[in-house]
Design goal:
The complex is a heterodimer of chains A (293) and B (304).
Chain A (H helix, E strand, L loop, with lengths): L22 H16 L6 H28 L6 H7 L1 H22 L2 H5 L7 H32 L3 H33 L5 H24 L3 H6 L5 H12 L1 H4 L14 H28 L1
Helix pairs in contact in A: 1-6, 2-4, 2-6, 3-7, 4-6, 4-7, 4-8, 6-7, 7-8, 7-10, 7-12, 10-12
Chain B lengths: L3 E10 L3 E11 L3 E5 L6 H8 L7 E6 L8 H6 L1 E4 L11 H11 L4 H14 L15 H13 L5 E5 L7 H16 L4 E6 L2 H4 L5 E6 L2 E7 H6 L3 E6 L3 H10 L5 E3 L2 E5 L3 H14 L3 E7 L3 H12 L1
Helix pairs in contact in B: 3-4, 4-5, 9-10
The chains are: A mainly alpha (293), B alpha/beta (304).
């Protein structure tokens, strides 16, 4: 006969004397929560539809590219070009994920519950930003990894696999650049409103409305204006940085309608850094204000 | 140890609006009532206690720590329940409280256990797994209290915890707060604009008005000094008043009643003796406990 088990006692309130984790762990918890939120994990089924639709599309494209490439025996699209080709899907993903990450909290008024806890007020926006960057990087990086695995298995030898890997790494870096730029712009816009529809509209608008400016600048008679036109819009800015740093991986057809940066490649890179830094600074300033309310 | 101590605490917003002016107060652990009208500076004081605002002048200490410099250490030991709606409607209470427990630094499994414990203590059981959006106001207030309790703080700051509740809900919430203060061993600062509510449960009362301290004292000290005996006789009220005055009792009249300050048990005997001597029909003789509100009202009148 064993001792009776499973007896429930009301032991009253228990004080907690165990460990309390530091800033790093708290930041990590918030970050992980953010990544899950971006993909609708731990949320209702409705919140999962859109993120996983986008994930499904990019993975399907990557699978088809891999299949076609292995049939033709040649690369039809580079890893870096893949990120470019998916740019619109990335924009839509940001337009849904960024409001989900920050606008929702603004609307429900839950922020006082965060800011009254031992979490420095800069940690909240930074954890959310890092979460969105990670989500976007996964969105662009995972299909590239799929393409790489497909190519590696159909490759002729170790040398060919090595060549593929050397192509993949710049592609992943490029995906990282997309992720950082789009996440900081998107999250900043979303942090200004508690209405998710407004935030989503604002994000798409910024990416959409700046495209015609690039179009106009690129047909101006001034050659310099044409070469600088890409700076006016985040997607073309990112492409500009990509073309400057890894020209051959993005423009595979030398006769095609390539983008001419002239001598301004470094300026594109500088503009991208300034854009990200500016967005992060504004985001932090925004949350400093929100925290004191 | 002093729970909360402020010294000439002043907070001026934007150089013009003075929310708190020269507030000096020290309170001991226990249930503390912070009363004042809307705009008296209660919420500003809470934000200063949490280190969300920095004082314009003066010093503030919570649990012996300075919230402006030791912000993280203070917040780790303090739980805060805001006045307004602060619950995301699509999360369940269990998920929300667990998540906030982790933000307070609890390890993952501990956060989950303590979240369901905290929800159980505030009276939410199976419903804790449903989305908060479908909860009643009373249940939402309980979730707000549970999230302030999840990391086992030493001090709870409750901003208008009975806001929006019906009378039964108010009583239940006040009973819960009292239980936390006595059985759980957690000090509580309850903010309210309703004096009658907090005076029922608190040990210490701090009253502020227009950012200034009106009075801070133990509730016992505030009420015991002014307990009165009300005497009513069917006839001969005048004669009794003269008789009692002759016995050196400071008697005052209030309608058909005679009011005598209750000095000790002997006061009863003196009154009963006087009534018996005059052979008057005694209608009633009872102790009238003065409400704290009357104290403040009288005080304000004397100021004017």
């Amino acid at each position: 006969m064993s001792e009776p088990t499973g007896v429930i006692h009301d032991i009253g309130y228990q004080r907690y004397t165990g460990p309390r984790l530091g800033r790093g762990h708290v930041f990590g918890a918030l970050y992980l929560h953010g990544v899950r939120t971006a993909f609708g994990l731990g949320r209702s089924a409705k919140a999962k539809i859109f993120p996983w639709l986008v994930v499904g599309i990019v993975l399907m494209v990557a699978a088809s590219v891999t299949a076609i490439s292995s049939q033709l025996g040649e690369q039809i699209i580079t890893y870096a070009q893949f990120a470019d080709a998916m740019s619109w899907l990335v924009i839509f993903f940001v337009a849904v994920a960024a409001p989900e990450l920050v606008s929702r909290d603004l609307r429900s008024g839950v922020l006082p519950l965060y800011f009254s806890r031992p979490l420095p007020h800069a940690d909240y926006p930074l954890a959310k930003l890092l979460a969105l960057v990670t989500a976007l990087f996964l969105l662009l990086g995972a299909p590239q990894l799929l393409m790489f695995l497909g190519a590696a298995f159909s490759a002729a030898g170790m040398g060919a696999v090595w060549d593929e890997l050397l192509d993949l790494l710049p592609g992943l870096l490029y995906a990282g650049l997309w992720a950082v730029v789009f996440a900081s712009v998107g999250l900043l816009i979303a942090s200004f409103t508690g209405k998710r529809a407004f935030a989503a509209g604002g994000i798409v608008a910024v990416f959409l409305m700046t495209t015609p400016i690039v179009g106009i600048l690129s047909v101006l008679p001034s050659h310099t204006a044409n070469q600088l036109s890409g700076i006016a819009s985040p997607p073309t800015l990112v492409q500009g940085v990509g073309i400057w740093t890894m020209h051959d991986l993005l423009i595979t057809d030398p006769d095609g309608p390539g983008v001419d940066l002239g001598p301004f490649g470094p300026l594109y890179a500088l503009a991208a850094v300034a854009l990200v830094a500016g967005c992060v600074a504004l985001l932090l300033a925004r949350y400093e204000k929100v925290a004191a309310r | 140890m002093t729970l909360i101590a402020t010294e000439s605490l002043t907070k001026v917003y934007g150089g013009e609006v003075t929310a708190l002016a020269d507030l000096t107060v020290a309170v001991e652990p226990g249930i503390v009532g912070l009363v004042g009208a809307n705009g008296a500076g209660k919420s500003t004081l809470i934000k200063l206690l949490l280190g969300l605002l920095t004082p314009t002048h003066g010093r503030i200490r919570v649990l012996g720590l300075d919230p402006t410099t030791d912000t993280a250490a203070v917040r780790a030991r303090v739980g805060y329940m805001p006045e307004h709606d602060c619950l995301p409607p699509d999360l369940s209470a269990a998920e929300l409280v667990t998540h906030l427990g982790r933000i307070s630094g609890l390890p993952r499994t501990v956060a989950r256990e303590r979240a369901s414990e905290a929800l159980r203590h505030v009276g939410l059981h199976e419903e804790r797994h449903r989305p908060v959006g479908g909860y009643s106001t009373g249940m939402k207030q309980r979730v707000k209290l549970a999230q302030a309790l999840v990391h086992d703080p030493d001090l709870l700051l409750l901003d208008e915890p009975t806001n929006g509740l019906d009378p039964a809900g108010r009583d239940a919430m006040l009973a819960l707060v009292q239980r936390i203060g006595t059985e759980f061993g957690i000090s509580v600062l309850v903010c309210s604009h309703l004096l009658g509510e907090v005076e029922r449960i608190c040990d210490t009362l701090v009253a502020i008005e227009g950012g200034r301290l009106l009075r801070a004292d133990h509730i016992a000290a505030m009420t015991s000094a002014t307990d009165m005996l009300a005497v009513e006789v069917s006839e001969g009220t005048e004669a009794l008043a003269i008789r009692l005055a002759a016995l050196d009792l400071p008697v005052s009249r209030e309608g058909r009643l005679l009011l005598v300050p209750l000095a000790d048990q002997g006061t009863y005997d003196l009154i009963l003796g006087a009534v018996a001597e005059l052979d008057l029909p005694l209608h009633r003789l009872d102790q009238r406990r003065h409400r704290v509100a009357e104290l403040f009202a009288r005080r304000e009148n004397s100021h004017v």
